[in-house]
Design brief:
It is built from four helices and no strands. With about 70 residues, the chain is mainly α. It has one domain: Arc Repressor Mutant, subunit A (Orthogonal Bundle), CATH 1.10.10. Helix 3 packs across helix 4 (about 60-70).
Length: about 70
């Protein structure tokens, strides 16, 4: 795991503590969906299929991919 990913996960953890258990779980689930979507995109899956797999809107998945691409630069 990269230092950048570790720092991001620590931030998510801290946000979870601050927001409470229920909201923290919700944020964690959303982040897991985002990471799954990014992995599938890297493997060449079409956005429409990724949205079906992670059960999110196509526009949401497109935004995650755009953000992920920007972070990778």
């Amino acid at each position: 795991m990269s230092d950048e990913m570790r720092k991001e996960m620590e931030t998510w953890y801290q946000e979870g503590i601050e927001l409470g258990k229920e909201q923290g779980i919700e944020i964690g689930e959303k982040n897991a969906k985002r990471e799954t979507a990014l992995s599938l995109a890297e493997m060449g899956f079409p956005v429409e299929r990724i949205a079906q797999v992670v059960k999110e809107s196509i526009s949401c998945v497109k935004q995650w991919i755009a953000e992920g691409t920007a972070l990778a630069r």
